[in-house]
């Protein structure tokens, strides 16, 4: 044991002199022979009489009963077994009284609107009063003692309750009046005199004259109808033609319908350009219209003339006119004639060269679109989509309707010929697309999905394989134009805003690009293969309603808008 003590004392003898001097001054030396100094190294004695002291470390506090100054009552109690003081009854539930609570807010409540006492009500009585109130308009007031029924005991139509003497729906009411008797019609075997259920009432009058007031109302209604009919039968506006060029014919006797041959490209060629490019700048503006331009069409095949219709009731090539805004226009195959559809409910056939109106067609409905049959043998026939949900087919030779296609449930917006002109596709406000065989008034293909929107503008691709449809959910959808007419889900063109506007779509001649206007007056150009939006040009101050790519030019695009201008881009 002494060796252990010596080792403990000598512990730290190898430290430096500075530590030793510090420990000598600060710590008093311990005598190793002191038994208390080595007590912690010795084992405890196993004494059976060893005692353990119990310590209570909790502080002394006053009990709850000694602190309370009064008795608290539960606000939900109905009975109290002692006589409480005023302060006890109206003491706050917890803590001090809220000084910001009003008397109404401080009152006890068990629901949002106040305090509702539990009450028992028979299910039959509740249903009886509920049905009585819904039938007669009155019911017993549940908050009033109903043993002595009076007018105060009812809520709702009190006068009706007094009149019916508090009658409920489960109590028999007054006797119904006797039914009107009919004239006896004899036996069923008597075929001539038997009347059966068709017999007249005994007090029935055969004729009744309207009173003076009723007669005046009838006369006013009849006069209004006659006046309205006269307005509908008004004659069409007088057509006018103004020639804006100096001479109608050149030195060789050719009119402006002659295809020019000195413009740098072959306008008579049937081949499309090999490669098309994006237009970058505006090179010309036609500003002859005073109101928004609704449609533009290029001269068939060559595209050297531009036909435009406008809300100013004018059609620009020569300047024929309607009495109201022009909705749509269409050339025949040769371009010598064109059709116009206007809000004055007339379709008019014009001579392109002279600007004279050849004939007029109407069925008293507004035409929304018009198309010649592109077949060379059927150039005398045309179809028009009307506001009364019908597609009407006219013959320009007789001026009569020869066929009606009546299957749509809304106004017809577009008509597009496909499949070598044997069929045509129509779209409507009923959000459907229908395919028709020519001259057969029953659609053989009907496309309508819950997710589809109205498609007020449709264009056939140059190769005749695809239909580009401007959808009202700000997308251009592509449908196949052969056989099944399926939606091509891989070809969806987005990124423009057209909701509410029938912005016309077009393709570049080489099928590389798709172009369309939008509601912001911008010209949008997409890549056909990737469907990416390549380019966007601010073309018009208002809606850019139509965009056409010239069939013989590599980068020339024509746009028109509701600002009344037509622009050429290259």
From TrEMBL:
Residues 10-20 have a biased composition (Polar residues). It is found in: Nucleus. The keyword Nucleus applies. WD repeats lie at residues 319-360, 405-437, 505-536, 537-570. It holds the Pfam family WD40. SMART domains: WD40. GO terms for biological process: mRNA splicing, via spliceosome. Residues 1-40, 205-238 are annotated as: Disordered. One of its GO terms (cellular component) is catalytic step 2 spliceosome. GO terms for molecular function: mRNA binding. Keywords: mRNA processing, mRNA splicing, Nucleus, Repeat, Spliceosome, WD repeat. This is Pre-mRNA-processing factor 17. It comes from Cyclopterus lumpus (Lumpsucker). The gene is cdc40.
């Amino acid at each position: 044991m002494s060796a252990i003590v010596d080792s403990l004392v000598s512990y730290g003898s190898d430290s430096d002199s500075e530590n030793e001097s510090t420990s000598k001054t600060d710590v008093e030396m311990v005598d190793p022979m002191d038994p208390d100094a080595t007590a912690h190294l010795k084992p405890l004695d196993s004494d059976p009489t060893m005692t353990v002291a119990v310590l209570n470390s909790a502080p002394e506090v006053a009990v709850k009963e000694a602190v309370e100054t009064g008795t608290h009552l539960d606000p939900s109690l109905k009975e109290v077994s002692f006589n409480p003081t005023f302060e006890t009854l109206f003491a706050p539930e917890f803590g001090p009284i809220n000084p910001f609570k009003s008397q109404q807010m401080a009152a006890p409540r068990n629901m949002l609107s106040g305090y509702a006492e539990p009450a028992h009500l028979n299910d039959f009585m509740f249903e009886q009063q509920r049905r009585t109130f819904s039938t007669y308009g009155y019911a017993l007031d549940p908050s009033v003692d109903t043993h002595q029924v009076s007018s105060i005991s009812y809520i709702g139509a009190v006068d009706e309750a007094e009149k019916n003497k508090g009658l409920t729906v489960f109590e028999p009411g007054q006797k119904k009046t006797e039914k009107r008797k009919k004239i006896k019609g004899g036996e069923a075997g008597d075929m001539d005199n038997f009347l059966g259920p068709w017999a007249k009432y005994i007090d029935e009058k055969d004729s009744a004259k309207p009173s003076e007031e009723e007669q005046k109302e009838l006369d006013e209604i009849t006069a209004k109808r006659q006046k309205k009919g006269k307005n509908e039968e008004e004659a069409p506006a007088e057509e006018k033609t103004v020639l804006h060029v100096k001479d109608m014919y050149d030195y060789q006797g050719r009119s402006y319908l002659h295809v020019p041959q000195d413009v740098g490209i072959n306008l008579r060629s049937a081949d499309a350009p090999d490669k098309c490019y994006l237009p970058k700048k505006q090179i010309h503006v036609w500003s002859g219209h005073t109101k928004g331009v609704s449609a533009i069409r290029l001269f068939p095949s060559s595209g050297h003339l531009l036909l435009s219709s406008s809300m100013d009731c004018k059609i620009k090539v020569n300047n024929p006119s309607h009495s109201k805004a022009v909705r749509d226009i269409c050339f025949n195959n040769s371009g010598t004639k064109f059709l116009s559809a206007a809000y004055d409910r007339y379709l008019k056939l014009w001579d392109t060269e002279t600007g004279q109106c050849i004939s007029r067609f109407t069925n008293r409905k507004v035409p929304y679109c018009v198309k010649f049959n592109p077949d060379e043998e059927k150039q005398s026939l045309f179809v028009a989509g009307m506001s009364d949900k019908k597609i009407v087919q006219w013959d320009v030779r007789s001026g009569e309707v020869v066929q009606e296609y009546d299957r749509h449930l809304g106004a017809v917006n577009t008509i597009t010929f496909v499949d070598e002109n044997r069929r045509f596709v129509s779209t409507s406000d009923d959000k459907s697309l229908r395919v028709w065989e020519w001259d057969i008034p029953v659609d053989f293909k009907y496309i309508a999905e819950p997710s589809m929107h109205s498609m007020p503008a449709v264009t056939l691709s140059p190769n005749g394989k695809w239909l580009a449809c401007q959808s009202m959910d700000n997308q251009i959808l592509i449908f196949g134009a052969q056989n099944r007419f399926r939606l091509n889900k891989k070809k969806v063109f987005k990124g423009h805003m057209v909701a509410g506007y029938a912005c016309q779509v077009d393709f570049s001649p080489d099928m590389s690009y798709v172009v369309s206007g939008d509601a912001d007056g911008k010209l949008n150009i997409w890549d056909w293969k990737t469907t990416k939006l390549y380019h966007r040009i601010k073309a018009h101050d208002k809606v850019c309603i139509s965009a056409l790519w010239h069939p013989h030019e590599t980068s020339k695009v024509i746009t028109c808008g509701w600002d009344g201008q037509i622009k050429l881009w290259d």
